[in-house]
Amino acid sequence: xxxxxxxxxxxxxxxxxxxxxxxxxxxxxxxxxxxxxxxxxxxxxxxxxxxxxxxxxxxxxxxxxxxxxxxxxxxxxxxxxxxxxxxxxxxxxxxxxxxxxxxxxxxxxxxxxxxxxxxxxxxxxxxxxxxxxxxxxxxxxxxxxxxxxxxxxxxxxxxxxxxxxxxxxxxxxxxxxxxxxxxxxxxxxxxxxxxxxxxxxxxxxxxxxxxxxxxxxxxxxxxxxxxxxxxxxxxxxxxxxxxxxxxxxxxxxxxxxxxxxxxxxxxxxxxxxxxxxxxxxxxxxxxxxxxxxxxx
Length: 296
Hints:
single chain; mainly beta; globular
């Protein structure tokens, strides 16, 4: 089915799971499909219980796939569903501490799942800076099933971000890139800013790095992107962080950039910047997924 705003992740067997989203008729979807690169075909899987778009997906160490948050027919969602490829069924796990839509998501090296930023009813037009981490093994299991897991709030980002790109680097740290934030606009009182509901959104070129061992965010460890963008996708590939597509105030982007985290130690300033790679053939405003482990 045609869909936008779906969640996607690679299953343990190499298939790409795509869940939810919105159809070309603007209907919210609960349907789920899996792509097999070996056979070049799609398989229809069991539906989720809740239609959602602007969600995220992540694979757990036990093979289950989480589909997290997003927006449903009655508003922003904090609910999380887990799919078992072995049992071919969906189950509910612990809700996030707060609903969020168009947020960044990454799986940590220890198997926990991090979500950052996004928007919800509380944030109005100013994106969230809050961050929480899901521990899938927390809580008592019941009836022979998996434990419900638990979400824990951790340190907030330096800046609220909507539709930022996010990936886990080879050293275990998480990098969050770009997105859209609220531009602070001053009114007649120099000591005040307009409320977030009145502020225009700004395409961000800043980058933040999170260390899960110290629970600290840093905004000075990575260079700025060449230009602000939101809705792009990222992947860690061969030690490099790759950022693809997205959109800015002028339209959809086909730009691809890369950053080498180890180049920070290089005396050559050029190698510490984001490098421009060969562009994609077409601009893509909301890249659904960038994956490095699909089997061909």
